[in-house]
Amino acid sequence: MSKTSERPKVARRQIIRRTSNEKEQRMAISAPKLVGPRDGELVFLGGVDARFLIDGAEAGRRFALVEHPIPPRALAAPMHRHRREDEYSFVVEGSIGAMLGETAVSGNPGDLIFKPREQWHTFWNAGDAPARILEIISPAGFENYFRELAVVLRNVRLGEPPQIAELCKRYELDIDLESVPALIERFGVRFPAAH
Predict the structure, then answer these.
(1) Which residues sit opposite 70 in a β-bridge?
(2) Least confident residue range of 21-35, 115-129, 142-156, 163-177
(3) Is the peptide bond before 192 cis (omega within 30 degrees of 0)?
(4) Could you report the per-residue pLDDT of 88-104, keeping only the tens digit for each?
(5) Within 10 A of 61 (CB to CB), how many other CB atoms are there?
(6) Is the pLDDT of residue 27 over 60?
């Protein structure tokens, strides 16, 4: 057989594999889903909680959708960066401040704040009323960090226990705890953000 006649077979196998993978993804998201305002698993993270609206497995692992209710003047997290995921925060209610690298931005209802992977960032409720964001995580997987963090936080009060360091390592998340005092002073927020 000549090389030319072998190429279509290879290409066909690649197409078959891709089609099979696409079929699996379509099957994972084939059922319609309505999520009401009180639906979805809610985990408590010390103030800035997480409510799971669309799990990554439901979306073929392409994305996950998580709601974060944020109390007034609450810092959601220290400066941190994700190695694998991009995050898109759609402001539903209130005023959200965010540090994206060295740049501070402010988002209001209807605004979208993009936090690309590898960029140091954090966010907070910049107002005196509750705020809410819808967080799109792409690709999916990092939403499970919140589930696991909730379990760890139930057992530990202060400091950075080894469980959190291991959790960050597993999810390829870098956290700068030393950023917290400067963020509190600069933006008039509190952390942890107990209700």
Answers:
(1) 131
(2) 21-35
(3) yes
(4) 999 999 999 999 999 99
(5) 16
(6) no
